[in-house]
Amino acid sequence: MAKRAMTAEQAAASRKRRARHLEDAVRALLSSEGWARWVRVRSRNGFSRYSWFNQVQIAAQRPDASYVCGRGDWRKLGYELADQEWRHPIWILAPFTGKRTETVEEEAMGGTEIERCYRYFRAVKVYDRSQVRPIDGAQPVDLRPPGHPLTGDSHAHLLRPLGALAQSLGYRVTARALEAGGAQGWCDPLRREIVVNRQRPANARVRILVHEIAHAHPAGELDYEHFTRQQAEVLVDTVTYVVCGQVGLDVEGESIPYVAGWGEAGALEAVHTFAGTVDAVAGAIEAAIAPADDQATAVS
Q1: In angstroms, rounded to a whole number, what is the distance separating the alpha carbons of residues 82 and 128?
Q2: CA–CA separation, 217 and 162 (whole Å)
Q3: 197 vs 180: CA distance, rounded Å
Q4: Contact in structure between 227 and 237 (CB atoms under 8 Å)
Q5: What is the pTM of this model?
Q6: pLDDT digits (tens, 9 = 90+) for 173-208
Q7: Which residues pair with 193 in a beta bridge?
Q8: Domain boundary among 103, 134, 165
Q9: Whole-Å CA distances, 296 to 47, 51, 267
């Protein structure tokens, strides 16, 4: 049975509900708990595929979410919904493409019908990994993200692509011996140089490089000219937490307390803007260091 098209009034009411839902979800970021919740959701495996709008929706509806996808995609991964979990979906907006026929009036020859494509968004159901179980007889994909400490060298392979990214931004990376109790790295926009403490383990150097590249990346201009020093450092540390979480480095103990403490100081509009900026910069760095066949298509 075909769905009945919405009237103009119903469509306007639907848009208003979606806007109010987004505002309520973003307003939650004004609290330390809400900001930390969104940061955790964005950093976990499987969430870089979603737009910032949908990340906020997921965090608002299920703060403990760690990997989210639709029912059909879960089956492809070797999982099915657990008993009664179909009653508790997470709602997000997904893009769809439709077609419609229009008549174009031409002077010489009557009306000509042409087919046009258009894009629209529809609410769809997705589910978290906590809501599914392995399918009997299947070989489910392991969804556990690794959590390697900064004291090791498991992620040394990321130093080269991070160095290449810095170079593409017009910065050279310099390794120096720095005192343990002082700054472990910095970004100097005048000298176009990023300095990293060469005495730290490889994983720690990855974290430092991500942090300093976030300062330098033009996707967000997270510098002291566009933000206060406190704001810039918090936003950059949020990017660092997100990127490191995606690649499997455990930096929560360092980043979350600092990042969460700032959330209560901003206005609703500022938090909205900054969260989108964080997502854009983190996504740019993730794309630069991820294998080509491992980059997922974003869901709007």
Answers
A1: 11
A2: 12
A3: 9
A4: no
A5: 0.63
A6: 999 999 887 888 999 999 999 999 999 999 999 999
A7: 172, 188
A8: 134
A9: 10, 12, 32
